[in-house]
Design brief:
By secondary structure, this protein is of the alpha/beta class. β8, α10 and β9 form a beta-alpha-beta unit. α10 packs parallel to α11. The radius of gyration is 22 Å and the shape is globular. The chain has a seven-stranded parallel β-sheet with strand order 3-2-1-4-5-6-7, sandwiched between helices. A six-stranded parallel β-sheet has the order 10-9-8-11-12-13, sandwiched between helices. The two termini are 15 Å apart. The chain contains 17 helices and 13 strands. Helix content is 42%, strand content 13%. The structure holds uridine-5'-diphosphate-xylopyranose. The site of uridine-5'-diphosphate-xylopyranose has 25 residues, from α1, α12 and α13.
Length: 454
């Protein structure tokens, strides 16, 4: 390999659900002989396994701890834009003095300003979409003026190219309730204004998974499907030791849950996890505990909540003996891949959905916000699980959860759901395996990257 070519700076938003797939992408590039540097905030670096990737700091203007110190989402994104642009430029200049200058920035879609930085230095630029291509296509139609917000009740179900008919409850919350999420919506729409200016639009999905949509968007974006970006141990081309993403904001109590899982029969455990950003109120936690108890299944539940809420659920669980285990954090992919796990109750974050789909675990979809309702819609479309309904207060009641778990694990359709889940895991493995659709796309990306003289 010519050392002067092929150095990618990967710039994720500093949140677990964004770092995971982008770090995995960096690792995939490294495994194919390309130099990759993860650029992230100083307070994030300590959570990243430095043996997996080279990491460099860039600042969001809140070096003492980021987002939680910012007065608002708007202020945080604005600060990241101004301070981040400057520190990213400094990093590129620093690499210019090295034997391997950077010739590409792969940036999180929440940082559209990184495109200007790449253009300033005349290097390749690629936006990384951490949502599904289907979700992103909806924002695209808004940008083109085919959908106007707020949406009119009369318009439902909405019919869009490459997508099934969509009801209000299927739409990303930023679109269904734009007034509640104006800062995020503005940041998202900003990226769609400039999408065509990128050399690539990298999407963490695979062609077979969203085939109709990929066809419908053909020629509109420089789209490259290259996922699922999950640790390769769970796919077709395992790299030794790649069993975790290599970034974790919380510490997994690994020994505890692995020991517990080992004592359970294959396919008997319900795994409950609502991702890194969501929160579970005390009332909701109690309903979940009630539903799990009524299902009479073993369960492993990740609850990283405030002490009082956690205490409440723990008290409830203490009466359940060995049936359930609660942990504050785990290596989720490792748990999903454990033979004891037979069902995943998920908030439908896109990473979680891709992980369960690739590992072949049936799901109960409990979407909360953002892109999650749309991901839940697809869990139903792919027939790999069921969607749980909330009551009029937005609470998932215990009896609804119990019903859904039974449907997925023992119900009339459970055999088909298991079969479909297995089949999707095979398709995901083929997509990432040698000459699979995603693998070919990554190779094309690398070939073009290596051809550019800086
Ligand atoms: C959010 C959005 O929901 C998601 O759709 C978007 O594309 C990225 O940002 P988040 O809500 O955290 O992410 O959910 P998810 O996308 O599922 O990501 C969570 C990640 O944390 C997953 O990769 C999961 O494996 C990991 N995780 C979660 C753990 O490793 N351990 C846990 O205990 C819980």
């Amino acid at each position: 390999m010519n050392e002067q070519k092929g150095h990618v700076i990967v710039l994720p938003y500093p949140a677990q659900g964004h770092i995971n797939p982008m770090l995995q992408f960096a690792k995939r590039l490294i495994s194919k002989g390309v130099k990759a540097t993860l650029a992230t905030t100083p307070y994030t670096i300590k959570y990243i396994d430095a043996s997996s990737v080279h990491v460099e700091p860039i600042s969001d203007g809140y070096d003492e701890g980021g987002f939680k110190f910012a007065p608002s989402v708007e202020a945080y994104l604005e600060s990241f834009k101004s301070v981040g642009s400057r520190t990213l430029s400094e990093l590129i200049l620093k690499f210019r003095e090295s034997p391997c200058p950077a010739n590409c920035i792969v940036y999180d879609s929440l940082f559209p300003w990184a495109l200007d930085v790449a253009q300033k230095f005349g290097i390749y630029k690629a936006v990384f979409l951490t949502n599904s291509a289907s979700v992103c296509s909806i924002y695209w139609h808004i940008k083109l003026g085919r959908l106007n917000l707020p949406l009119d009740k009369e318009m439902f179900p909405i019919s869009l190219p490459g997508l099934p008919p969509l009801h209000s409850s299927d739409l990303p919350s930023f679109i269904a309730r734009p007034a509640d999420h104006s800062a995020y919506l503005a940041a998202i729409m900003e990226k769609f204004e400039i999408l065509e200016h990128n050399d690539w639009v990298l999407c963490n999905t695979f062609q077979e998974l969203e085939s109709e949509l990929v066809k419908a968007m053909d020629g509109q974006w420089p789209l490259l499907t290259m996922g699922p970006m999950i640790p390769s141990a769970y796919l077709d081309q395992p790299t030794e030791g790649d069993t975790a993403y290599g970034a974790s904001f919380w510490k997994p109590s690994r020994d505890k849950y692995l020991r517990w899982l080992e004592t359970k029969a294959p396919g008997s455990v319900v795994f409950v996890s609502f991702g890194s950003m969501g929160s579970t109120t005390a009332k909701q936690a109690e309903e979940i505990a009630r539903g799990l108890k009524a299902s009479k299944k073993h369960f492993l539940w990740v609850l990283k909540e405030s002490e009082s809420e956690e205490k409440l659920a723990r008290e409830f669980l203490s009466r359940l003996g060995d049936d359930g285990l609660m942990v504050a954090w785990c290596n989720q992919v490792e748990v999903l891949a454990h033979k004891a796990v037979g069902c995943f109750v998920t908030h439908c974050g896109w990473n979680s959905v891709l992980e369960a789909l690739s590992i072949g675990v049936p799901m109960v979809a409990v979407p909360q916000w953002s892109d999650q309702p749309m991901n839940a819609k697809f869990i139903q479309e792919w027939e790999v699980g069921v969607r749980a309904e909330r009551d009029s207060q937005g609470i998932l009641l215990g009896k609804e959860l119990e019903k859904c778990i039974r449907e997925v694990m023992d119900g009339r359709k459970s055999e088909d759901i298991r079969k479909n889940s297995f089949n999707w895991s095979q398709t995901a493995a083929r997509a990432t395996g040698v000459e699979g659709s995603s693998d070919k796309n990554i190779s094309n990306f690398i070939n073009r990257l290596m051809a550019k003289n800086i």
